[in-house]
Amino acid sequence: ADFSMDDYSSNGELQSQYGYDIRAVAQYVNDNNPLPSQTTRTVSIETKSGVQNVTLYKNNNKVSSVELFMHLPESAPQNITVCAEGLNYNAVKVLFERDNCVLFSNYVDMVDVEKNGPVFERNEAFPDGADIQFVKVESPNKIKMRSWQMGTGEVQSSPSGAVAAVIASVI
């Protein structure tokens, strides 16, 4: 591998690689070792989960998109009921290196993610915690998602959350 990374959760435990984190490392590598003449660059990064190849696509010497392989879920997605603050919610549990909880809402823009994310993150349905996706299916080819990453808060992007949301939307 060209580089290596260790990814620690907020409680200090070494965890498996996640899409957002490895993408940020690849961006950092590119920013600090630029190869301006190339429009694409592949960086191999060793993680706890093995070596991951990340391809950076550049436009005008700036990274415009990133491509990486996301593993399939470790088990079949499960429709579950999650009880939070005295109410029952229908959800889909998708397990990658850690649980993802996908909750559907027609009002995803109105969800108070800062309040509700932690409620679901540490719910008894997820003994080791979970990343939470609040999802609205807008059409057969389009979903809208807001994501709460365990130990971090609301994030602008979550590759594993996006994959979990797509899987949950089609089952």
Summarize, please.
Helix content is about 20%, strand content about 45%. It is α+β, with helices and mostly antiparallel strands. The strands form three sheets. It has a six-stranded mixed β-sheet. A four-stranded mixed β-sheet has the order 1-4-5-6, with helices on one face. It has a two-stranded antiparallel sheet with strand order 2-3.
The gross shape turns out to be: globular
Percent in strands: 35-45%
Number of helices: 3
Distance between the termini: 36 Å
**Segments where pLDDT lies below 50 for 5+ residues?**
none
Number of β-strand runs: 12
Report the helical percentage. 10-25%
Give the helix/strand class. alpha+beta
Main sheet: strands, sense, barrel:
6 strands, mixed
The neighbouring-strand order within the major sheet is: 7-8-9-10-11-12
Report on this model:
The protein has 171 residues and is an alpha+beta fold. The chain is 20% helix and 43% strand. The chain has three helices and twelve strands; from the N terminus they run βββαββββββαβββα. A six-stranded mixed sheet has the order 7-8-9-10-11-12. A four-stranded mixed sheet has the order 1-4-5-6, covered by helices on one side. It has a two-stranded antiparallel ribbon with strand order 2-3. The longest helix is centred in the N-terminal third of the chain and has 14 residues, at 19-32. The protein is globular and about 55 Å long.
